[in-house]
Specification:
The chain is of the alpha+beta class. Helices cover about 35% and strands about 30% of the residues.
Length: about 190
């Protein structure tokens, strides 16, 4: 009988530990999902952008592997005595139409009009244009999905056609600005 009593106490302790572990795991998972933006929506607006001057390197392949390219561009800018400020990527191909290994992106930093762009970096000027902009705070993978989906829904609802290339601007506060050029549909 004494043994039965001890076994039930151990089982009660074990059950308590399991419940506490489950609670901590669920709370931790919810915090991670919150941080990644799982509970946030992308906000879409229509605007005319400023002109952007970009120092970049070309990446061919997966759009998910641009972080090392951004770092390389930052290193080249620093060597040229230019302070890297706002990272960005210009995605030239549709992920739904071009094989991953063939996708092209121009990855780098927005720079000032008079900044020196050292070799091997290239320069691109994107003129002012009318775009749909989706902003999202959180992880870029989830953000990309939510932003481009929201822009497709917005364009259908407002009578616009979305075009490429897509420009993503990665702000220091964690917010990402997703831009697609737009054109009013002609009926």
């Amino acid at each position: 009988m004494a043994t039965d009593s001890q076994d039930s106490k151990v089982s009660g302790k074990m059950l308590s530990l399991i419940l506490i572990g489950l609670f901590v795991t669920l709370c931790g998972g919810a915090m991670v999902m919150f941080y990644l933006g799982a509970f946030s929506d992308a906000v879409v607006t229509r605007t005319t952008t400023q002109s952007y001057r970009i120092a970049y390197l070309t990446n061919i392949g997966s759009y998910n592997n641009i972080e090392p390219i951004i770092e390389q561009v930052a290193e080249h800018l620093k060597k040229g005595e230019v302070t890297p400020q706002t990272p960005c990527a210009l995605f030239l191909d549709s992920a739904s139409q071009v094989d991953e290994k063939d996708r092209r992106a121009q990855v780098g930093y927005i720079v000032e009009r008079n900044d020196y762009i050292p070799s091997p970096l290239e320069e691109l000027v994107i003129p002012s244009r009318e775009v749909a902009i989706a902003t999202f705070s959180g992880g870029t993978l989830l953000g990309s999905y939510k932003a481009y989906k929201a822009m497709r829904e917005w364009s259908r609802a407002n009578g616009y056609t979305l075009m490429l290339p897509a420009l993503e601007i990665y702000h220091s506060n964690g917010e990402v600005e997703y831009q697609l050029p737009i054109e009013k549909k002609k009926y």
